[in-house]
Specification:
With 201 residues, this protein is mainly alpha-helical. The protein is built from six helices and no strands.
């Protein structure tokens, strides 16, 4: 949309480093257009001082001044012809994008329980019978039920949790729900609303 007399950022040249703002970018463009080399350097030093004031929170960095000159070089489109006070040949690193991170491609058999629960199932298979295994089995079952409540994955009945635990541990664990009932979790749609803080009057 073009309206006479109005100048939108979307219609302007894209900023190389937007954090410095358009005014400093205009100063950089002006400095690059100056015919006198000494005058260009004086102007560049003034611009760097202004850039420094905008980046005050990071002034403690050891290479802060080097960074400012690198940024100036990039903002000028590498066209600012001056006697640079430091080496700006590596300035391009500030424009490079990080390599995308590879996500772990793990085959999770039961996504609603997750990888951690799979590891617990494997641990329970190899543990000797006793109070320690019983305690871990109960904690695992309660977490399984919590996962079912959280993800709304079918039934949330204790019997289902007990059946799943027996199945995924290859029959090593059989919970007696009459002796060790599981915790009760409300479905998300039945959770009571959070109470807001009362204003002090």
């Amino acid at each position: 949309m073009n309206i006479k007399g109005l100048d939108y950022n979307t219609q302007r040249k894209k900023l190389v480093l937007p954090e410095y703002g358009r005014e400093i970018q205009n100063m950089v463009d002006y400095a690059a257009s100056l015919p006198d080399r000494a005058e260009r350097l004086r102007c560049a030093k003034s611009i760097v001082r202004l850039m420094q004031s905008k980046m005050a929170p990071v002034q403690g960095n050891a290479d802060f001044e080097q960074t400012l000159w690198d940024h100036l070089y990039l903002m000028s489109g590498k066209q600012l012809d001056i006697d640079w006070p430091c080496d700006v040949s590596a300035a391009e690193k500030f424009l490079s994008k990080p390599q995308p991170m590879e996500l772990p491609q793990q085959n999770i058999k039961m996504r609603h329980y997750g990888k951690l629960m799979e590891q617990l199932f494997e641990k329970l298979k190899t543990m000797p019978a006793g109070p320690e295994r019983d305690a871990l089995a109960l904690d695992t079952a309660n977490q399984m039920k919590r996962d079912l409540v959280l993800w709304g994955h079918g039934s949330m009945e204790d019997a289902k949790v007990a059946d799943d635990l027996a199945y995924y541990t290859d029959g090593a664990i059989h919970l007696d729900l009459n002796k060790t009932p599981l915790q009760r979790f409300l479905p998300a749609n039945e959770m009571p609303p959070k109470k807001g803080k009362k204003r002090k009057g």
